[in-house]
Amino acid sequence: AGAAMVARALWALLAALRAGWCLLPQSGYLHPDEFFQAPEVMAGDILNLQVYYPWEFLSNSPCRTVVFPLMTSGVTYWVIKSLQQLDICSSCINSYTLLVSPRLLFTIFSFILDYSVYRLAPLWGADPWKALVLLAGSYVTLVFYTRTFTNTLEGLLFALLMVLVSSRKSNVGSAEPTSSSFIGVVTAAGFFNRPTFLAFALMPLLYWASLIVDSQKSIKTLINDFLKFILCACFTAFVFITADTFYFTSVSLDNLYSTNKSSLIDVIVQLHDKMVVTPFNFLSYNLNPHNLALHGSHPRVTHFTVNGVMLFGILHILAIGAGFKMLKKYVHQLMLVRWRCRGLPGLLVHSEGSPILLLFYFVPLAFLSLFSHQEPRFLIPLILPLVLFSASPSRAVRWKLLIVLFNLLGALLFGCLHQGGLIPCLFHLEQLIHSPASSSHPQHYTLLFAHTYMPPRSLLNIKKTDVHVQVIDMAGAGEETLCQTVEQRASNFTCSNCHIFIIIPGTVRATITKCGVSFKNETLIFPHLSMEDPPQIPVLSSGNWRSQLGLYILELNRDH
Length: 560
Hints:
Protein name: Mannosyltransferase
Number of strands: 5
EC number: 2.4.1.-
Largest sheet: 5 strands, mixed
GO biological process, one term: GPI anchor biosynthetic process
Distance between the termini: 72 Å
Shape: globular
Transmembrane segments: 153-170, 182-208, 229-248, 304-327, 347-372, 378-397, 404-429
Number of domains: 2
Structural class: mainly alpha
InterPro entries: GPI_mannosylTrfase
Strand content: 5-15%
Number of helices: 26
Helix content: 55-70%
């Protein structure tokens, strides 16, 4: 009882940390997709801000559904826009609210994971509070699940699916009749969010189907369950396709009806011709090895050997060890029973929950490993079966100190350091651009970003009608290209109200000194760690370590 009380208090503390760190906010910048797959697009559509629309939302074959961005970032931006229009909050729209409001919604949604673990733990023979502490203390939950990734939504939908299919475990004969419908909705929604969701859903759906078949119900009842699943999945898909078609083709029913008084059949034909099915476009793009190579190719074993360890540490390694032991055990049993009619002993029996949890973990991981482009965030949905497996009473956690140190390091690295100066830099520039001095005397700003992740323009809070701010993203440009651009801007630096800022990591600060220009102001934002331009260890050990772990905002000297 005492251990349970301590675990509950620890979970409550970690849950408060998750919410508080979101509001602080976290300065780490994990990947451009956390901005450019939802918040950046919605800021342009709803708040009419200058943004950069990614290729997934602009091409003739859009790869991302607009439904989830509208339901998440879109809703939060609509709320702060309404509050400002109603004069409830005079300056609701600023860089802080633009960053934090979508993240806060995702943080609230992240507690679906906690609910799922609490519901699932007793059903799978795990200690509920031990599993909750493992979940809440993981830096994956603290950092990744509070960010606006489609992978985050994928993980939440995977958790809901596991709850739905596992609810039948408690009493197979009296399963909820609506569960088949909900399972169909979640499966289709997950597929439209990210088609890779099918890799995560495969084992839960097979498990659910096996439970239905083993329930000894009538054939009519079995068919009814599967029909509900298929019909609800198809209806959900229809909703997504309709919403995406109207968004991406700008189809308006008023326009369709007003053109020659089109009949309903004409309207349906026109909609069918312009129909947008984003998952098929996603699969068509990603099944092309040449397209994947543009985003980076990795060895097929990267998820198993690198990404799993990077995200889950010792828990991933222990799961691999347990997987090999169980595989050896079942092969041995298979040889002994010689394929008796009962099949693989214990593999799908409720009393043996661990093997199934391992399948829930390793089968999606194996499917995702078939693709050459492998990023750590693709695996974050797997945290649920992993903590349930690791929290089994018979599997005492002997590595508590290592787990704590690993997650502290991960939270520090990805929550604070990784590209950690870019968001505070955009906050600083937004305040500068919207300062009273700039408002009374119009200024022109050129912001040149080099060797940083792609800056989300929406955080500058610039209206589309404003032309006084220009953002230039040089990405990882070489020294010659960077100097040519800087010198060109300097030579055209004639107006008295013009300001040119160069934003660059401290590790490549020396490059700018070779460009033959001078600066009148230097602002150092600390900390900022660029893994693309990492600091050198000898330099870090010198007195220049703060500069190496910082991001510079350099204002070009007009009088030079």
